[in-house]
Design brief:
single chain; 3-stranded antiparallel sheet
C-alpha cells in the first residue's frame, strides 16, 4: 500500500495488553474472558447481548459459544508488527480496545490506567517511529484523579491522544461535569479518539436479533451510538465551550456525515429550541463543527460512505484505519493480508483516485501532520 513512497498510517488499531486480559479473566460479569472445553482459544465477551448465550454455554458444551476468539492478534506486540508488515502499514497509533476502564471500581481505576498506559508507552519504545498510542483514562475515578492521569499521559513520549467511549463519567458526553476533563485534554494538546462500545438497547434488534450474530450491534448499533453521542455534545454546546477540543470519530463518524443535514433541519424547526433562544442566528452549524473540530477515520469499507465523510469534513480531515484485530479473515490465513485492511484502502482509492494527493493524505500524511508522528 505504500508503493508511492508516502507512509501508510493506521490510526484505528487496538490491543489488549497481557495485564488487561489477566484482569478480564478474573471477572464474573462482562467484560470478561472465559475458556471453554470445546474451543482452543479463550473467548472475549464484551456485549450485554451475549450474557444469555454465556450462561447457556457454561452449562451446555454443545451450545453456541458467546463472544469472539481471543487470538494472539489481540495481545501480542510481535503479532501487531507482523500484521503491519503483511498489510503494508508503516506506522500504527495503537489503543486499548473497548471497554477501556469504564467498568472499574473508582478506587482502583487510576492505578490500573497508569500501569496499562505505561505498557503501551513501553511497546512503542520497542519500535520507535513505527508505533504511537492513544491513552485511556480512568473515567470511573474522581475528577482529580482523571486530571492527574491526563497530566501523566501527556508527558509520555509516544502518546498522541486519548481514546474515549461515549459514556463519559456515566451520563454521556453532554454531561456538564465532563467539561473540565475535555478542557484539560484539549489544553494538553491531546486529540480525543471517540469510539463506541455500548451500542443500542438489545430490544431494537428484535426477538430474533441473536440469530444474526454480531451484525446488527456492530454494523448499526456502534455507528448510531457515535452519532447520538456527538449530536448530544453539539446540542449541549460542548464544542463552543471547549473550542480547542479536537475529536477523531471512529467508523467515519457513524452516520453523522449522512445525517448532519437532517440534524440541522430538526434544530431550526424545533419550536421549543427556537422560542427559548437556543438557536441563535450566529451559531455554528454542525457542518462548521465537522470542518473545524472533528476528524474522521476511514474505517467505512466502501467508497460510498467515504465520499459522504469527505464531503462533510474534507479529505484533509480523514485518516486511514483497519480496526485490527477485529474483523479477522474467516476462511483465509489470519497471518496473511486482511480484507478489512484491503477494503478500507480500496475505498480510499475509489473515492479520491488511486495515487492522488488526497489518497496519500488520507492513507497517512494527514495522520503524520495532525498527530505529529515523527520518530524522535
Amino acid at each position: 500500500m505504500a508503493a508511492s513512497g508516502n507512509p501508510v498510517v493506521d490510526i484505528h488499531t487496538h490491543m489488549y495488553p497481557p495485564s488487561y486480559i489477566s484482569m478480564l479473566e478474573k471477572r464474573d460479569t462482562i467484560p470478561l474472558v472465559r475458556k471453554f472445553p470445546q474451543a482452543e482459544e479463550p473467548r472475549l465477551i464484551l456485549l450485554s447481548s451475549e450474557l444469555e448465550s454465556l450462561d447457556v454455554a457454561l452449562k451446555d458444551p454443545n451450545a453456541k459459544l458467546p463472544g469472539r476468539p481471543l487470538s494472539t492478534h489481540f495481545a501480542s506486540l510481535a503479532q501487531k508488527i507482523h500484521f503491519m508488515d503483511t498489510n503494508g502499514i508503516n506506522v500504527s497509533v495503537i489503543s486499548l480496545a473497548n471497554p477501556w476502564f469504564d467498568f472499574l471500581d473508582s478506587a482502583e481505576a487510576a492505578g490500573i490506567a497508569d500501569a496499562v498506559n505505561k505498557e503501551f508507552s513501553d511497546m512503542c519504545a520497542e519500535h520507535v517511529g513505527r508505533l504511537f498510542f492513544f491513552a485511556a483514562l480512568p473515567l470511573s475515578a474522581p475528577v482529580a484523579a482523571i486530571k492527574a492521569s491526563i497530566d501523566h499521559v501527556k508527558n509520555l513520549k509516544y502518546c498522541r491522544g486519548i481514546i474515549l467511549g461515549t459514556s463519559g463519567l456515566g451520563k454521556g458526553l453532554d454531561d456538564p461535569n465532563l467539561l473540565p476533563i475535555f478542557q484539560a485534554v484539549a489544553d494538553a494538546n491531546l486529540l480525543v479518539f471517540l469510539h463506541p462500545h455500548y451500542g443500542l438497547p438489545n430490544e431494537v434488534y428484535g426477538p430474533r436479533g441473536e440469530e444474526y450474530g454480531h451484525v446488527l450491534p456492530l454494523a448499526l448499533g456502534f455507528p448510531m451510538e457515535t452519532t447520538i453521542a456527538v449530536a448530544r455534545m453539539y446540542m449541549a454546546g460542548v464544542f463552543d465551550q471547549v473550542r480547542n477540543l479536537k475529536m477523531l470519530l471512529a467508523h467515519s463518524g457513524g452516520t453523522l456525515p449522512f445525517l448532519a443535514g437532517r440534524i440541522e433541519s430538526c434544530i431550526v424547526h424545533d419550536g421549543h429550541l427556537v422560542k427559548t433562544g437556543k438557536v441563535p442566528k450566529n451559531r455554528r452549524t454542525i457542518w462548521t463543527v465537522l470542518k473545524e473540530q472533528i476528524y474522521l477515520d476511514a474505517v467505512i469499507y466502501s467508497e460510498v460512505g467515504l465520499q459522504a465523510a469527505i464531503a462533510s469534513s474534507g479529505a484533509d480531515r480523514l485518516m486511514f484505519g483497519t480496526d485490527h484485530p477485529f474483523f479477522p479473515p474467516i476462511e483465509e490465513d489470519v497471518q496473511g493480508p486482511w480484507d478489512s485492511s484491503r477494503l478500507n484502502a480500496k475505498a480510499v482509492s475509489k473515492a479520491v483516485g488511486e495515487g492522488s494527493g488526497e489518497a496519500a493524505a488520507i492513507m497517512g500524511l494527514n495522520a503524520v501532520r495532525v498527530l505529529n508522528l515523527k520518530a524522535e
